[in-house]
Design a protein that fits this description.
Structural class: alpha+beta
CATH architecture: 4-Layer Sandwich
Distance between the termini: 55 Å
Helix content: 40-55%
Number of domains: 1
Number of helices: 8
Largest sheet: 6 strands, antiparallel
CATH superfamily: PPM-type phosphatase domain
Low-confidence stretches: 17-33
Radius of gyration: 21 Å
CATH class: Alpha Beta
Number of strands: 11
Length: 276
Amino acid sequence: MQPYFVVCGAAVLFAVLLIIRIRLTRSSSSRTVSGIEIGNGQTIGSRSEQDDYFSSMTTPVGTLAVVADGISGLANGRMSSTLAVTTFTKAFAKLEDATNLNGYFAEAATQSNRGILQNLNGQGGGTTLAAVIVCGYQLYYGAVGDSLITIYRNGHFQTVNSKHTAEILLEERVLAGQMTSEEAKTSPVRNQLVNYLGYEGFESMELGNAPIRLYSGDYVLLCSDGIQEALTEIEQEEIMRKGGTPQEMADAMIDTINDKGFKSQDNATVLILAIG
């Protein structure tokens, strides 16, 4: 009988430790999540429709923010961005803990890509996507396309993810001596996407190798390319330095873009998370 009691005791101990671990994870996340304030802004620009879509939500696991930019010039841009964001939020709502957030990003991206391709049924379309999860003071992210995630800290921006455009390929050709820097800068395919959701060749999205440490006073920004193309980094820094709430900062960015009145202004969306 003794081995039986040893096995039972070990099983009970394992179950108790597992429950304690889950409760500690949830408790830690909840304390910090409550300190996050979120602002958002969006403009249709000079386009005929708004193809950007965004969402944010908070659960016991953490705070999710996601921005998708339906590819302008292709049909079904709005469908693609909406489907992708909805897929990410629904999957996040089902998460019970933060033990495998990169797995969550990867699976949500695969589901989004599959769903978009099924809806496109051979037609043109697709979307970029940038998503972050703030869990405790840790930032997890996934991104595909050219929407950018940045951290504003101590007066300066830090870029989190890469742009998946032909620019990278052109830079490699410059390094290989196959073209000049000037030719690369003026290439008409420079901003062409090389990876996005709704792409037949999609394999994976960019994921952080490790969570990024956040600090009180940091701001995490998610921007569609309409923000980056219309506002210089200096202009964005000036807006952030003026302070205010995240909503006031987001409003200031959109107002500045609208005041410029560019004839070819793209859809533009910004989400700002203030870390308390």
